[in-house]
Amino acid sequence: MRLNNNVTEFILLGLTQDPVRKKIVFIIFLIFYLGTLLGNLLIIATIKTSQVLRSPMYFFLFHLSLSDTCFSTSTAPRMIVDALLKKTTISFSECMIQVFTFHFFGCLEIFILIIMAVDRYVAICKPLHYMTIMNHRVCGALVAVAWVGSCVHSSAQIFLALNLPFCGPNVIDHYFCDLQPLLKLACTDTYVVNLLLVSNSGAICTVSFVMLMFSYVIILHSLRNHSAEGRRKALSTCVSHITVVILFFGPCIFIYTRPATTLPMDKLIAVFYSIGTPLFNPLIYTLRNAEVKNAVWKLMERKTTWDKK
């Protein structure tokens, strides 16, 4: 049961209040979001229809693209529409839904990236036992754990948000609802809640990042025993994964491991990991992966053939 009875909606200030800049924001982020949808849905369709991309790595890439699509959709469409409006409001219920979905799919992406690192470790360090260890049942179980873990994390976030009392100020200096900007509006001491936020979101981001980087160091170290061709292929895959990890975790750690203080750059950094990363991921994975590129071209060729018929 939520304690706040005085606030039924919030006002989102967005990235800017300047009318001209809001139009620029609308155009830029509409292009970004459409690019995100096109890139990730293309990867999803390619993996689903391709007979070549059947290894566990592509099974996990499918779920990464799915989480990227949903993660971006949790904030981008509203941000784009709000850029056309003079006054942007969001109801309390919609705000809580946005908090839940944003953290759910953000956390899901973290867990999928960890699973992909495990997959690469087994593939490179234990190649003879790879298909035995990473069988269909294990892959399905790992993804299921990721979804359940994400639900637990986002449920904790929404529990904290629902128990914040709001007495009057309802202007959120952000372009979407998140727990940190909401803490500034709560009419109570938020020290404990902020501590829980840092120990939850902050710890997940930091620990996961350290684990991932450590695992890739082990993987790269083990490549010295591989052939030149094997090293080249494994290195290309690992570099793609490491790039995604740094682009996603760097901004997240900056935002969620600090006390409840806001900086002018916070909104731009949030844009980078909430909208930028889901756009970059399909580009990184397709441009650096020959198998995905070939499968995408085959899909496009089939689509062209069907259209001609």
UniProtKB/TrEMBL annotation:
It is a multi-pass membrane protein. PROSITE patterns: G_PROTEIN_RECEP_F1_1, G_PROTEIN_RECEP_F1_2. The chain crosses the membrane at residues 24-45, 57-76, 96-118, 138-160, 201-223, 235-256, 268-287. Gene3D superfamilies: Rhodopsin 7-helix transmembrane proteins. Pfam families: 7tm_4. Keywords: Cell membrane, G-protein coupled receptor, Membrane, Olfaction, Receptor, Sensory transduction, Transducer, Transmembrane, Transmembrane helix. Residues 39-285 form the G-protein coupled receptors family 1 profile domain. CDD domains: 7tmA_OR4A-like (cd15939). InterPro entries: GPCR_Rhodpsn, GPCR_Rhodpsn_7TM, Olfact_rcpt, Olfactory_Receptors. GO terms for molecular function: G protein-coupled receptor activity; olfactory receptor activity. Signal peptide: none annotated. It is found in: Cell membrane; Membrane. GO terms for cellular component: plasma membrane. Belongs to the G-protein coupled receptor 1 family. Putative odorant or sperm cell receptor. PANTHER family: OLFACTORY RECEPTOR (PTHR48002). This is Olfactory receptor. The lineage of its organism: Eukaryota, Metazoa, Chordata, Craniata, Vertebrata.
